[in-house]
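hiii so my PI (J.) wants the whole complex modelled not just the main chain, which honestly fair. so below is everything: two entries, each one labled with what it is. i double checked the lines twice but i was tired so who knows lol
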Amino acid sequence: MEEQKLILVETVCTHYQLQFSFIEQLEEVGLISLVRENEVVFISEEKVSDLEKVLRLHEELNVNLEGIDIILNLLNKVGSLQSELDEAKKKLQWYSGEL
Amino acid sequence: MDFIDYYKALGIAKTATPDEIKKAYRKLARKYHPDVNPDDKEAERKFKEINEANEVLSNPENRAKYDKYGKDWKHGEEYERQQQQHRKSQGRSGQGQGFSGGGYSQSDFSDYFESMFGGGGSGYKQGGRSVKFKGQDLNAELHLNLRDVYKDFPQVLDVNGNKIRLTIAAGIENGQTIKIPGKGGQGVNGGPNGDLYIKIHLENTTEFHRMGNNLHKNVELDLYTAMLGGELVTDTFDGKVKLKIAPETQNGDKVRLKGKGFPVYKKKGEFGDLILTYSISLPKNLTEKERELFKELKNLR
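here's the output for the full assembly
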């Protein structure tokens, strides 16, 4: 497995002024994933930007956690539709260039 | 630098109450927030605009000033005096509740805003929690020619004064984004650095069309070679190839040259195919003799 840098959830909580229970709630809804080792809880460094995005949506747009989950799912869907559309456009360009 | 109609930006009347301003702002912020509009420059522009509008209109002092001098900000001693007064009162923080968005900082206010309300809007830091832990992610674009990425392409980028060496692997797709971890903005309080995302734009000035790993090309064939067969030399992407033309080759017939296409991304030594489509050119300006021979051919059929 590739090495991943971990950050203590406590550090994260201090920085963002969050309750530990809130982070756990985020995990329960499936918005972030945590790593547990010897009863110490970490978050992977890679996931910090995901966490920040969740926090922004929650605090700046007043979206609740379930709502954020829906938004993220829809954004994923939009992303894959977008790349499908790009692919289709490329093909169309190619075929119309042929005629 | 033009006058910006902040009321129009929020879609409200000049008589709007503070509550209406807040409501309009919140509604538009939900629509244009960068986190829900990834990679959308137009949304980002709108988002900045409504933030700026809210910054001004949600603060009674600023709103009054804007209403009074906004349109004529260029003229008048009144405005000058206002400016001086403003300088004195700078440092008092506004009550606008702002948004930080994805990697967006509020120093991006317009020149108009800055000339009206002072440099950088630094006195009006957003009220929301904007402390970041992870450094800002940076986005860059790299424009390359299709020829460049036929082989691994070493490149030195200058990102905010930092030289970053990287090699674009052969066979990268147009529009593909490369992530370079840790090369974005610096983290805060021991937080990780942001990442650098480089979006690749490929320009194709070659006679080849690229479809995935395959290359397509049209090859012109004269009528006689098509009918009788023969040989033809044509360019591949990085060389030449001698083609055997089968007798009675038809217009639109295709041949596939295995392994003569584009390199497969991050799979050294693997290549797509080159697909050639024959397009037969018919003779023009026939001589009398040729016409007769064609007639003869016609009568044979």
